[in-house]
Amino acid sequence: MIDFGYGLTPSSAIDLDKMDRTHFEILIRREPDVLKCMACGSCAASCTAGVYTTMNLRKGILLLSRGQEKSALEQFRSCMLCGKCQLVCPRGINTRNLILSILKTYSIQ
Amino acid sequence: MNNRNVVIIGGGPCGIEAAKTLAKLGHTAFLIEKEPHLGGHLAKWDRLFPYGQKADEVLNKITSGLENVKWFVDTQVTSINRIDKSYNVILGNGMSILADAVLLTTGFSLFPAEKKEEYGYGIYDRVITNADLEHYFAEGNDHRIQYPKKIGFVHCVGSRDEKAGNRQCSKVCCATAVKQACEIKEKFPNSTVYCFYMDLRMFGRNYEDMYLEAQKKYGIIFVRGRVSEVSEKQDGTLLIKAEDTLSGKPLRVSLDLLVLMAGMVQNSDTAKFAQMLSLNIPEDGFFQSKNYFTAPGVSSKKGVFYAGACTGPKTLPEAIAEGKSVALTIDEYLL
Ligand SMILES: Cc1cc2nc3c(=O)[nH]c(=O)nc-3n(C[C@H](O)[C@H](O)[C@H](O)COP(=O)(O)OP(=O)(O)OC[C@H]3O[C@@H](n4cnc5c(N)ncnc54)[C@H](O)[C@@H]3O)c2cc1C
Ligand code: SF4
Ligand code: SF4
Ligand code: SF4
């Protein structure tokens, strides 16, 4: 078959009917405060890693809560666990702990 | 003290409070309500934000102490004519009152949700409004609510929407949505509850706490994005489309129940009274005070006043406080 260079692009839409929240529910049990995030973006704004990489805690939390693990997790490798985001989070989330719990729950080294 | 006649049109929380205060100040207060009972919209609600107090408790409290008020239900105002410094108010029951002041407390109307056709109210069986849900909470039955597992709330229905002819924010429906989302989750603990919002306007004291509780205690899932369309699947469930604007991705979900947060729009009688009294009303249809800061409740016509939700979206404490304060304004005018 001739390869025209086209492929099927996987849908980027979020289908909440198909979302699997199993891991996120475990994360909630470990770190109930994850539910308090109001998506203000203070964490991402203050994150040094975010300037050079895709690290964006706000987006990470959001995507995990929508079961979008694949697109959410890659970025966490860039986190330096510096804790700057914790200083600014207006909802008082212990973001450093949260990130550690995310790494554990989704088994990322 | 000189006893004067004041006619108050609209027996909701604001009008009731104003009538009681005017009577206490020694005036003869005539309270005219077109519905069969007093209480306005408050009589339709079950529990109130932000503290969850029962609406009937508040209503009972407000409607007690009406002994010195001459109140009429099931009564319309047929005409109002200026005679010298007074107004001749003719009622549907044939009575006429020579009033030294007229107070309009005619409140608001709920946006007719069927006008937003794309949401399917009145077409799909599992689409209801905030008012329907209050009725269900109060009465305990509604054939459209049968153990729903997935429930969605749509904010800003008929508000902030030029297509719906209503540009303004209705102010109370974010708090109502969050309150109702928690209540329905409490009723059906195994359900998943979504709120589709554009901005969350939790402006009052303790309102933000409600939001926090909705997130943390009830696990309500907030999706920032306006629902663009709703369709019904063969099994009667609903398919909802929106953008998850915080991730920048289109989103879809099927639901067993969709609750539309219908907003507050002007009561159509506003225009009728504006015509009777030659008052100007701005584009949004609500009465406008002479000065927002220094003359609230004062109209452009001597002896005509207004207060409560007929001057724009209000919370209940605001409407009640305005009723009390406009009574003092009228008392000063009558001196
Ligand atoms: C879904 C929803 C939920 C809400 N929940 C809360 C809450 O939990 N807490 C809170 O603080 N606020 C709440 N509110 C707001 C609250 O309902 C209003 O602030 C309040 O009802 C305003 O009182 P009002 O007397 O100004 O008007 P209304 O309650 O609208 O009363 C107006 C009265 O005037 C009468 N009337 C109208 N036209 C005429 C006429 N031509 N002749 C005679 N009578 C007439 C009407 O029949 C009505 O009885 C809610 C609003 C909505 C839409
Ligand atoms: S802890 Fe990680 S996410 Fe937070 S500011 Fe530091 S690098 Fe960014
Ligand atoms: S700063 Fe806190 S509340 Fe804001 S987006 Fe980050 S984690 Fe969420
Ligand atoms: S209060 Fe909230 S739901 Fe109501 S119109 Fe304003 S933003 Fe929309």
Question: Key features?
Answer:
heterodimer; A: 109 residues; mainly alpha; 7 helices; 2% strand; B: 335 residues; alpha/beta; FAD/NAD(P)-binding domain; binds flavin-adenine dinucleotide; binds iron/sulfur cluster
Explained architecture:
The complex is a heterodimer of chains A (109) and B (335). Chain A has 109 residues and is mainly α. Chain A contains seven helices and one strand; from the N terminus they run βααααααα. Chain A has one domain (22-105). Helices cover 44% and strands 2% of the residues of chain A. In chain A, 30% of the residues are buried. Chain B is 25% helix and 27% strand. Chain B is an alpha/beta fold. Bound molecules: flavin-adenine dinucleotide and iron/sulfur cluster (3 copies).
Q: Count every helix of chain A, treating DSSP H or I runs of 4 or more residues as helices.
A: 7
Assembly form of the protein: heterodimer
Largest sheet of chain A: none
Q: What shape does the CA trace of chain A take?
A: globular
Beta percentage of chain A is under 5%
**CATH architecture call of the largest domain in chain B:** 3-Layer(bba) Sandwich
CATH superfamily of the largest domain in chain B: FAD/NAD(P)-binding domain
Rounded mean pLDDT score of chain B? 97
Radius of gyration of chain A, taken over Cα atoms and rounded to an integer in Å: 16 Å
Largest sheet of chain B: 5 strands, parallel
Summarize the largest interface: chains and residue counts: A-B, 22 and 17 residues
